[in-house]
Amino acid sequence: MSLRSSLRAIWIFLIILFIVKLDFVSTRDKCRRCEDCLQPTHDNCFCERISRHNGSNGEDVILCKNVDPKFWEIPILQNIRSISFEETNIQNLTRKYLINAVFVDDIHLNNTNIEEIQPGSFTRFFSTKTMHLQKNKLSKISSSLFHTLTQLTELDLHSNHIDFIKEKAFYWLHSLENLNLADNKLSNLSSALFIRLKNLKTLNISKNSLTKLESNFSPSQLTTLDISYNDIHELPENLFTYQTNLKVLNISKTDIGNLNLTIFKNLNQLHTLSMHSLKLKSFNLKDFVLLPHLKNLDIHSNNLKFVEDILNFCPLLEYISIDGNEFLCTAVESMLKNSKTRNVTIEYTPNYQNHNIEGIQCAKELQNMVNVTNKSLTSKHVQNKTVQ
Ligand SMILES: *[C@@H]1O[C@H](CO)[C@@H](O)[C@H](O)[C@H]1NC(C)=O
Ligand SMILES: *[C@@H]1O[C@H](CO)[C@@H](O)[C@H](O)[C@H]1NC(C)=O
Ligand SMILES: *[C@@H]1O[C@H](CO)[C@@H](O)[C@H](O)[C@H]1NC(C)=O
Ligand SMILES: *[C@@H]1O[C@H](CO)[C@@H](O)[C@H](O)[C@H]1NC(C)=O
Ligand SMILES: *[C@@H]1O[C@H](CO)[C@@H](O)[C@H](O)[C@H]1NC(C)=O
Ligand SMILES: *[C@@H]1O[C@H](CO)[C@@H](O)[C@H](O)[C@H]1NC(C)=O
Ligand SMILES: *[C@@H]1O[C@H](CO)[C@@H](O)[C@H](O)[C@H]1NC(C)=O
Ligand SMILES: *[C@@H]1O[C@H](CO)[C@@H](O)[C@H](O)[C@H]1NC(C)=O
Ligand SMILES: *[C@@H]1O[C@H](CO)[C@@H](O)[C@H](O)[C@H]1NC(C)=O
Ligand SMILES: *[C@@H]1O[C@H](CO)[C@@H](O)[C@H](O)[C@H]1NC(C)=O
Ligand SMILES: *[C@@H]1O[C@H](CO)[C@@H](O)[C@H](O)[C@H]1NC(C)=O
């Protein structure tokens, strides 16, 4: 190699180094002001409070950490997929926080201590798809708060202190598919509340203080309804008459001790039914209705004595959870026999201390019962299950 070509190589190397360094310095310079991070051309720019980066699916994400709204003078944000707030104590959400984020698809305001949202905070969010307001301290939902969010498909309000929702609060959310109101303080729900939500698929009102439900409170196209953990004493006779699309239903841990099974008679699509901890004493099998698609049934922690024929009413049953009942041994025996021919998984905590059949505790009623103790099962024993 000649001296001349070596020199040329060194030159080229130095020039490249210079360009790289220049670029590095200029990126850093550009990011010195937080607002600049939000320019669409600046990917992966991290500042003290605001960073812009690629989310897990390659989407454009803005993360605002510990922001104070007085620093919140950012340029108009276009084509931003998602904006999240972390370690930010918002309390009083005003337009200022979101004023330039109007084209954002997903807004994460969860865990930010929001107590109130000023009217008009969301008025320009015509294209927003998902709104996460869970785990805050909201207590009232006014009728105008969400009224421009016509593209919203998901609204998560779970784990707030909501005790009042104005009747028309969800009136304009035509696109809403998923509404989570679980873990709040609702004691009543007007049937007008969800009436316009023609696309709603999932409604979660679990863990509130509801004492009754109106028979027409939920839209008929729902596929998932969770009303568990409420103080509901009885269900209106025609609550599910039009819920023919329902696939998942949870009525567990309510005060419904007296359940007339005919209430389920139109639930032809239902595949998962959770009704544990209801203090049910018996199923009136005369009233049992065919649940042709039911695969999962949770009846643990009731006071059931008989369960023999339940499998016959659910021809596709794959899984049944039965702990915490007072079954008679004849019932257990017949269920076990049936489960083996049908290949149904019975979930229970085996206990061989008291009288049992294959670890399922049961009460003897007849003298000439057959002992079927400790035979191997095709059904799985799921041990150490936590019973709620
Ligand atoms: C972010 O993801 C997009 C799409 O996958 C890609 O085109 C872009 O180059 C990424 N930006 C950065 C800084 O990684
Ligand atoms: C929240 O902000 C609004 C508007 O800035 C103000 O009128 C209201 O008093 C504030 N509420 C609280 C509790 O600080
Ligand atoms: C907010 O919710 C999103 C997704 O629902 C989650 O990834 C994020 O960790 C949550 N943020 C906080 C502060 O909990
Ligand atoms: C309803 O919300 C509660 C509380 O967040 C959650 O535990 C439960 O899984 C949800 N139900 C459904 C069907 O997703
Ligand atoms: C519903 O509950 C709220 C809050 O507890 C109460 O103010 C309102 O009067 C109740 N409405 C009905 C119809 O019971
Ligand atoms: C209610 O049951 C459904 C289906 O099994 C389940 O997904 C949901 O988590 C349950 N809800 C609660 C609050 O446990
Ligand atoms: C259950 O409801 C059906 C239809 O409404 C009725 O015919 C039947 O008598 C009821 N059963 C009980 C035990 O109340
Ligand atoms: C029972 O079901 C399990 C899984 O659902 C399957 O692996 C197994 O082959 C089935 N046994 C019979 C006898 O059908
Ligand atoms: C069933 O087992 C018990 C003790 O395990 C025994 O006393 C009883 O005679 C047995 N009954 C029959 C019908 O085999
Ligand atoms: C049944 O199995 C349990 C646990 O494996 C055992 O402790 C018990 O002695 C067995 N009972 C009989 C009658 O074989
Ligand atoms: C059940 O719990 C006991 C005590 O916590 C533990 O020793 C045992 O390994 C657990 N069994 C299973 C199957 O998890």
UniProtKB/TrEMBL annotation:
Membrane-crossing segments per the record: 6-24
Q: State one molecular function term (GO).
A: signaling receptor activity
The record's section on PROSITE patterns has: LRR (PS51450)
Coarse class of the primary localization is membrane
Tell me, what is an example of a GO biological process annotation in this record?
signal transduction
- State if Signal is listed as a keyword: yes
* Membrane topology listed for this record: Single-pass membrane protein
Q: Which keywords has UniProt assigned to this entry?
A: Glycoprotein, Leucine-rich repeat, Membrane, Repeat, Signal, Transmembrane, Transmembrane helix
Q: Cite a GO CC annotation.
A: plasma membrane
Q: Which PANTHER family match?
A: PROTEIN TOLL-RELATED, TOLL-LIKE RECEPTOR
Protein name in the entry: Uncharacterized protein
Organism expressing this protein natively = Henosepilachna vigintioctopunctata
